[in-house]
Amino acid sequence: MRFVINSQYIELEDYKNLMDFVPEFEICSSIISFLDKWCDDSLDTIDFQTSGSTGVPKIISHFKSSMVVSAQITQKAFKFKSGDTALLCLPVQYISGCMMLVRSIVADLDLYISDLSTNPLDKVNWRSNDKINFAPMTPMQFENLCTKNMKSLSLFDNILLGGSQVNDQQLRYIRGAEPNVYIGYGMTETITHLALKKLNHNPDSNYHVLDGFHIEKNSDDCLVVYADHLPGKIITTDIIDMISFTEFSWKGRADGIINSGGLKINPAELENAIDKHIDLPFFISSVRHEKLGETVVFFVETNNLISIAERLDFAKKIIAVFKKEKLGNRRPRLLYIVEKFIMTGSGKIDRMGVKNSVVESHVIEL
Question: Which domains, from first to last, does the chain contain?
Fold first, then answer.
């Protein structure tokens, strides 16, 4: 493989030369740190930290040999061949960015390095006639890419989204995009994606499981994953509808289910219903309630609602959306207005962090 940075090629064996591009490309320090471990034959495993978007981050170890198998599964799914091009615009502190390095090594790809940014093309200098065959990024990065220059999508063949669900605005961009756009289902425990769903150009309705993985559903309707290259079965907290042994639809997280006075409420279903009506970043969670145990809460990010009147007007609009979507007793009862959401290092909303930092004076009863 080769790195492509500032229009220069750097061979894999010369990876330490990437330090010459620091501090302009801070990601290079993380690349070197990972490759030092990857090339150390005395290390059979590498440790990864989960994102912590729904709870306390934890450390998970994976065998290098398992990571190679994961890379080969992705290579087969996207039909990589030697000399194809890929883009690294994800943090190498997490498994998403690390696996782009492993895939590039395994498939002998030319890997373009982008500085970590909400715009994945920041500081990327394209070589003439080059096209990016494979580019994983977050939905937020994709949206920013489209907002800045929709024509830049013609530089890509395949874009793989991950890290969060796609909202309605992003889906509108995706439907008009020239490259194939997929969303992956996976996690640190599964060494990134184990299933793909195509979102445009004959889109899929459900996730399709990649070769090498086997799935089932347990008594709690949660997805259970098996793979020969993983240490054992992985019991997820993701609720699914299992269409077949190779196809499923994602319904939400079991560990996020809200029990409000005995009524079981799935925040993901509410978010999906509301998303098309709200242009601001938001999420639905819960807070403790003396009588109900938990009550549903709507968190929204905006620094434009300064006055009490503006906040009350926004609350009225939100209530109208709840009625239109017929949320009934499942609807949020409190509105928390947050100036800026706390984000994890992998670009996800830190829901626990936001909940723990809210200002009570910014809450409105709905």
Answer: 2-254 (3.40.50.12780), 257-365 (3.30.300.30)
Contact assessment for residue 66 and residue 49, using Cβ atoms and an 8 Å cutoff: no
pLDDT mean values, one per 10 residues, the chain (366 residues): 94 97 93 98 94 68 98 97 96 94 98 84 72 93 89 93 86 94 96 97 96 95 95 92 95 83 86 90 89 89 81 91 92 91 83 80 81
Q: What are phi and psi of 163, to 5 degrees?
A: 100, -25
Q: Quote the CA–CA distance of 294 and 28 in Å, as a whole number.
A: 45
Half-sphere exposure of 248 (CA within 13 A, CB side): 27
Q: Which H/E stretch holds residue 230? A: none
Distance CA 287, CA 358 (A): 11
Closest to 218 (Cα-Cα) out of 246, 193, 254: 254
| 3-state DSSP assignment of residue 4 | strand
Instruction: Give DSSP secondary structure letters for 78-92.
Output: HT--TT-EEEE-S-T
pLDDT for 202-214, tens place per residue?
999 999 999 999 9
**pLDDT digit string, tens, across residues 281-317:** 999 999 888 778 889 999 999 877 778 888 889 899 9
CB of 133 within 8 A of CB of 116? no
Cα 10 from Cα 197, distance rounded (Å): 34
